[in-house]
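Good day; I would like, with your permission, to put a structural problem before you. What I wish to show you is a protein chain and, alongside it, a tokenised description of its three-dimensional fold. Thank you for your consideration; the sequence and its tokens are set out here:
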Amino acid sequence: MCTRYISPEAGDIERHWHVGSRTPASWPRELFPRYRGPFIRPARHAVEPTRELVVGQWALVPWFAKTATLPYLTVNARYEELAAKASYKLPWARGQRCIIPAACFFEPNWESGRHVPWRFARADGRPWGLAGLWNTWVDKASGEVVESYTMLTINADAHPLMRRMHKPDPKLGPDAQDKRSVVPIEPEDVDTWLFGPPAEAAALVRLAPEDRFEAGPA
């Protein structure tokens, strides 16, 4: 479960993902749950497939929410549960997929017996484009429009690097921990993730090779 990451600068996002130069708003570089951060989605009113940069809450607000601040966190969405989980099944069914730019992200390593934050960047120096879902929620009382997003995660029990993260459950075996990893989308796959049919997008939900990472204690 990822609950902290660093956003790239606005100009780096615009150049790397070709989203133009009209950044909608500012945001903090270091992002935690419910902070406002940038994400890239299909432009909602474009005739041709076009990317747009949006700033919204990192914690998806589902359609049935009474308030934008939920009593539980929706910053990460388990891919295996998207089709059934109430908070995510409609955005997933509607193809509301997005890219979350990240210069790096952080996960806890417990191999020493205590929480040691590790930093994960790309070995090639480029920013990550992490798979996510987005939603637009309207407050029925005030009319306020809230954009929001969540990161997808997948099981990483078999990954040589990501399986080392998070506190192990002593009641479970090493291959049944359900360790989680974010889902990087490579630059050449961004349009398929944003605009492609569900089956092609689903095929991109996979673990990144170990050599893709530059990782170590923060």
